[in-house]
Task: structure prediction
Amino acid sequence: MKTEAHLFAGVAAFFLVSDAAYIWWSREPAGGAALTVAFLMASVIAFFCTVTYRRKGRRPEDLRDARIHQRAGVVDFFPPHSGYPPLTAVGATLLMLGIVYGLWLFIIGAGIAMTGILGMTLQFVDAED
Result:
């Protein structure tokens, strides 16, 4: 993940320099906002890769003399089927319809969407920990 962190840090630096130059010479807010968002997104990915590298260390992919069998084993935890993603989609749909049709529908959609999001987030948290 160290290589990926450096790569995205470079992309973030490029967007930062481009953003500063664009804002200085163009005086147009939409492009500056878009470049700022691009800088922030690249920074978040670089931060994630850096934290993951520090937490988990080097991977077999990072070594030049690594073998295929070094990466064998359990990849990760993949959750089984769940009802929370459709609930979140219904909530998001009602949120968007609430923007058009009224605050009452927006509030209902926010409640349903938050229930779905919290359900997905906390679904596999062990109560004993």
Remarks:
- Residues 49 and 55 are 10 Å apart (CA to CA).
- The chain has a mean pLDDT of 89.
- Residues 84-122 form one domain.
